[in-house]
Design a protein that fits this description.
The complex is a heterodimer of chains A (276) and B (201). Chain A is of the alpha+beta class and 276 residues long. Chain A has helices at 34-43, 152-162, 183-189, 257-264, and strands spanning 2-14, 52-63, 67-71, 74-79, 85-88, 95-99, 133-134, 168-172, 192-194, 202-206, 221-222, 227-229, 237-239, 246-247, 251-255, 271-272, 274-275. In chain A, helix 1 (34-43) packs antiparallel against helix 2 (152-162). In chain A, strand 12 and strand 13 form a beta hairpin. Chain A is 13% helix and 29% strand. Chain B has 201 residues and is an alpha+beta fold. Chain B folds into two domains: 5-68, 2-Layer Sandwich (Gyrase A, domain 2); 78-199, Beta Barrel (Cyclophilin), CATH 2.40.100. In chain B, 18% of the residues lie in helices and 33% in strands. Chain B has helices at 23-31, 59-68, 90-97, 101-110; strands at 5-7, 12-16, 38-41, 45-49, 78-84, 113-118, 125-128, 143-146, 150-154, 157-160, 165-167, 170-176, 181-182, 186-187, 194-199. In chain B, the strands form four sheets. In chain B, strands 5-12-9-10-7-6-15 form a seven-stranded mixed beta barrel. A four-stranded antiparallel sheet of chain B has the order 1-2-4-3. In chain B, helix 1 runs antiparallel to helix 2 (59-68). The longest helix of chain B has 10 residues, at 59-68. The relative contact order of chain B is 0.18. Classes of the chains: A alpha+beta (276), B alpha+beta (201). Chain A binds chain B through residues 19-26, 28, 108-109, 115, 117-121, 125, 170-171, 173-174, 218-222, 224, 226-227, 244-247, 251, 254-258, and chain B through 6-12, 14, 27, 31, 37-47, 49, 52, 117-124, 126, 155, 163-165, 181, 183-184, 186-187, 191.
Chain lengths: 276, 201
């Protein structure tokens, strides 16, 4: 068992998500920055998408028995019983904690991650709190199970996701005609700031307003992660892993999949630029 | 007809659908395509998501096929949902519609509803078939928390909140013994299913 000693901020169990359920209104969810979760998991010999702990803020844990642990900011180490293991974001948007064997919560609708808006998945469908006890899974036996070294690919991907200077690539549309001419140029030509209201549902951006040409659609349309939705205020919201699966606001452009983690990893208050 | 596919990022394609498209048949034809991860069909759009390294082939043709021919779709299921009409907005709705409370309830229970889309939160179904006299804009200020099981209306839709969530619809009542979303089995209602509301006092 892994026991939660203290949480500051928000900590949830997250994995690689539950794709394939959007037609039931269930977003794919999963780690906000999958590259960071993969790095922590590989450091302890887990598969990249194994369930770990995602923390905004700080968390302290202890283990009942010796276990190999890692967070994505430092390498693997052995946690002895009774020893406290504390991880803080310290400037990063989120951190991931991995335990060899993974956090063994029930698989719900194809995933072990917590969907807070649905109140299911993870540990009792809710954020972790002091006193929670989490089971540790068993690693499948096999040649790869003993490795426990992050692959070069995982390291490169995590470094890129955490590089706060790269421009986030987008594909224009699909609702470009519902914006005033020049709106895309504003998006691509100006820096935006990650607003404090951002969460797993969406990253809210402050910056020049993106002028719209029409009102909200009366009929909702399907949405995807990375969609840059613009409400009537003109301040964009980039949909995150826990986004509503449908929405009525027009989408000016959509973040490419390879850059989704890099956008989600931007700390609150920092600057972001978009490119084509 | 030719379906135009729009890029929705590099991991999804979206198509516009004509009014009255057979949404269940479109959904099933898209979901059957190799390489499609998620398929979502709403009243005027169809969406597929995929791995950008392996986009599915035949998306447009699948939609065209469902639109042009009688595609065998799974038979829609019928659901009768028992409702206690004790909603916080019942009086406001009757004032706005110019009907008595009893007439509002009667018109709401007389509707034969069809699941036109699923979205917003897990298991939330947009039900078409609302009496035109009950068509009202959303509340000016959404409630931060609507209780699970609330039966509500807004615009041309009725719906039941599967989970407690924020919401801007007008609350007419509470669904009794209805599970709209179950974390083990997923959403109860599916595209094209038929729904009726039965008053329970």
């Amino acid at each position: 068992m892994i026991r939660v000693l203290a949480v500051r901020g928000l900590a949830t169990v997250q994995d690689a998500g539950r794709p394939g359920r959007m037609h039931q209104g269930v977003p794919s969810g999963g780690a906000l920055v999958a590259e960071q979760l993969a790095l922590a998991n590989e450091a302890v010999g887990n598969a990249p998408g194994e369930a770990g702990i995602e923390v905004f803020g700080a968390i302290s844990l202890a283990a009942d028995e010796p276990v190999l642990v890692a967070d994505d900011g430092s390498g693997a180490r052995r946690l002895e019983p009774g020893e406290a293991w504390s991880v803080a974001c310290a400037g990063a948007r989120v951190r991931y904690l991995a335990v060899r064997g993974g956090i063994d919560v029930l698989r719900v609708l194809g995933g072990r991650g917590t969907l807070l808006s649905g109140g299911f998945g993870g540990h009792e469908g809710r954020p972790l709190q002091r006193g929670d006890a989490l089971r540790v899974g068993q690693l499948p036996q096999g040649p790869s199970a003993s490795r426990g070294l992050s692959s070069a690919g995982a390291r490169v991907a995590a470094i890129r996701a955490l590089d706060g200077t790269v421009a986030i690539r987008v594909v224009p549309g699909p609702d470009a005609e519902r914006f005033a001419p020049g709106a895309l140029d504003v998006l691509l030509g100006s820096p935006f700031e990650v607003a404090v209201q951002s969460d797993r549902v969406g990253v809210r951006l402050r910056g020049p307003l993106l002028p719209r040409a029409d009102g909200d659609a009366t009929i909702s349309a399907p949405m995807v992660r990375g969609a840059i939705q613009v409400p009537p205020s003109g301040e964009p919201i980039v949909l995150g892993p826990d986004h509503p699966t449908t929405g009525g606001y027009p989408v000016l452009a959509t973040v490419v999949r390879a850059d989704f983690g890099a956008l989600m990893a931007r700390p609150l208050g920092t600057s972001v630029r978009f490119s084509r | 007809m030719t379906v135009v596919l729009e890029a929705f990022g590099d991991a999804a394609l979206r198509a516009r659908l004509p009014e009255g498209a057979p949404s269940r048949a479109v959904f099933e034809s898209l979901r059957a395509l190799p390489g499609v991860v998620d398929a979502v069909v709403t009243e005027r759009h169809a969406l597929v998501t995929f791995d950008p390294a392996a986009p599915p082939a035949g998306v447009g043709e699948a939609i065209e096929g469902a639109l042009s021919g009688p595609t065998p779709a799974a038979a829609p299921r019928a659901h009768a949902i028992a409702v206690r009409y004790d909603g916080a907005d019942l009086d406001e709705v009757s004032r706005a519609a110019g009907l008595s409370r009893e007439e509002v309830i009667a018109r709401h229970t007389q509707g034969a509803y069809v699941v036109a889309a699923i979205g917003f939160v897990p298991g939330f179904a947009y039900l078409r078939g609302l009496d035109p006299r009950l068509v009202l804009p959303r509340r000016a200020t959404p409630r931060p928390r609507v209780p699970a099981g609330s039966v509500a209306i807004a615009g041309p839709y009725s719906g039941v909140y599967p989970l407690a969530s924020p919401g801007g619809w007008h609350l007419l009542g509470s669904a009794l013994d209805a599970v709209l979303f179950d974390p083990c089995s997923g959403a109860t209602l599916a595209l094209g299913d038929r729904v009726t509301f039965v008053e329970r006092r």
